[in-house]
Amino acid sequence: MSPITFYPGPSKVYPQVAQYMQEAYQSGILSVNHRSAPFMEICRKTIELTKSKLSIPQDYTLIFVSSATESWAILAQSLVKKQSFHLYNGAFGQKWMEYSQKIHPQVGGYNFDVQEKLQPEGVEIPASAEIICLTQNETSNGTQVSNEVINAFKQKYPSKLIAVDATSSIGGIILDFAAADIWFGSVQKCLGLPAGLGLLICSPSVVAKAREIGDNRYYNSFLFLYDNIQKFQTSYTPNVLGIYLLMKVMENVEPITKVASRIKGQAEEWYAFLDGLESVEALIENREVRSDTVVVVKGKEGIIKDSKERAKGQGIVLGNGYGLWKETTFRLANFPAITEEEIQKVKEFLAENLNRQ
Ligand SMILES: *Cc1c(COP(=O)(O)O)cnc(C)c1O
């Protein structure tokens, strides 16, 4: 039997994926031309279901790409003339900024503390910055930026675009899509699917900006992707299996309001549970910025290492720490595909092993 995994990406896939893969094979869709009617119909249906289940506004466009990292590149290549500005407090947000800097040397950023609540009043954003970039859920340290804060930036900077990396929260929490112009993520986190498919979601203002810039230099230039998806096609042969699996998962998951309320409740229980353990604690003390979908547990290096090893021996995978927190934390995904029984099992393990100094 495969172990129970709490790794925050790639993460546990829905068990139904086994059957969906079989169905995809039997339906013949995997050998169909990606400009044919059967593919276009699956593409159309997947977009419609995803927008409906995740409450994405009707006038936003959903584009299939291959990963969240690809979205970082598409943004810098096609949607920025000279300067994006990045608000970050961890490894993923910083990487995004660094990729963008390689393309546009003027890219800048503001590094805030993991325990700090981001606020527009506290940040000086250059007038010349065209896009404000932020990571809604920083997977490396288990912090999140609320819809209210994203909205506050939008209000303060109405003429700039707001871009949000929601890779480890899309499908797990309620995102106020109208509060930003560009959202992206990939399916191997809260959507419980195998890696290899990314979602890039954008408002009509993004399309206007892309037309103004007119970038057509790359195979994945935004306007190619955008023009193709209007016909439910893609500019290169896409991950047809990934799209099919997303369609099946979206057919079967509950609407995001329901999913999010379960995830939020479980997150509260996780933090309360950690409060009761002797030898570890939540890395993030500020309740206002704690992530709902990635819970990061801090302890002495020896304890963290030992816990991961013992857990492995019992068929449980705790996620390694990341970046700055590699040795002193482990991470627990609180993603929708993980069941209550699995959470119970890991809690029993933690209670038994971490209730000592
Ligand atoms: C996982 C992750 C990424 C990278 O996703 P890929 O699909 O591997 O490109 C980017 N940003 C955040 C916040 C992530 O959690």
Can you summarize this structure?
With 357 residues, this protein is an alpha/beta fold. The protein has helices at 17-27, 37-53, 68-78, 91-103, 147-156, 204-213, 222-229, 240-252, 256-275, 301-313, 340-353; strands at 4-5, 61-65, 84-88, 108-111, 131-135, 137-138, 143-144, 161-165, 182-186, 198-202, 281-282, 294-298, 316-317, 319-320, 329-333. The longest helix has 20 residues, at 256-275.
Can you offer a commentary on this structure?
With 357 residues, the chain is α/β, with parallel strands linked by helices. Helix content is 39%, strand content 16%. The chain has 11 helices and 15 strands. The strands form 4 sheets. Strands 2-10-9-8-5-3-4 form a 7-stranded mixed beta sheet, sandwiched between helices. A 4-stranded antiparallel beta sheet has the order 11-12-15-14, covered by helices on one side. The mean pLDDT is 97. The structure holds pyridoxal-5'-phosphate (PLP). Pyridoxal-5'-phosphate (PLP) binds at residues 9, 67-69, 92, 135, 139, 165, 167-168, 186, 198.
